[in-house]
């Protein structure tokens, strides 16, 4: 009988004990960003681009919810416009061309560009807005 009471008592104690929090918070908080410039899980900045190849000169036209509008002075053949896009945006952002890579949209006007930088969303948005002001 004592053994039965001991088992019953210990199971009541275990049930009443607070449970451990199994979720651990990692180094940085992930925030859900909406808009054309976001940060992915690896910490890279992701930019949605609406490319307009075949323009007279390279220019950032606007930033809207769909993406950053970029006019490219290269024809959309054989990847020339993509190479010119990366070259132009690396100049605008003050980064090396190797810091930018085309993730999706190599044959589309809607592109996803991944940027390896410590600038963050605010720094990139500031540089893009500065380029828009200089060209308009």
Automatic annotation (TrEMBL):
<dbReference type="InterPro" id="IPR036591">
    <property type="entry name" value="YggU-like_sf"/>
</dbReference>
<dbReference type="GO" id="GO:0005737">
    <property type="term" value="C:cytoplasm"/>
</dbReference>
<comment type="similarity">
    <text>Belongs to the UPF0235 family.</text>
</comment>
<dbReference type="Pfam" id="PF02594">
    <property type="entry name" value="DUF167"/>
</dbReference>
<dbReference type="InterPro" id="IPR003746">
    <property type="entry name" value="DUF167"/>
</dbReference>
<protein>
    <submittedName>
        <fullName>Uncharacterized protein</fullName>
    </submittedName>
</protein>
């Amino acid at each position: 009988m004592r053994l039965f009471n001991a088992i019953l008592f210990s199971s009541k104690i275990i049930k009443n004990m607070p449970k451990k929090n199994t979720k651990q918070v990692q180094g940085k908080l992930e925030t859900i960003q909406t808009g054309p410039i976001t940060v992915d899980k690896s910490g890279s900045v992701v930019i949605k681009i609406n490319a307009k190849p075949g323009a007279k000169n390279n220019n950032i036209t606007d930033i809207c919810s769909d993406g950053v509008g970029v006019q490219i002075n290269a024809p959309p053949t054989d990847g020339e416009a993509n190479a010119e896009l990366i070259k132009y945006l690396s100049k605008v952002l003050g980064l090396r061309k190797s810091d930018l890579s085309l993730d999706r949209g190599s044959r589309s006007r809607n592109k996803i560009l991944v940027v390896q930088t410590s600038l963050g969303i605010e720094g990139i948005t500031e540089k893009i807005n500065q380029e828009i002001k200089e060209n308009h």
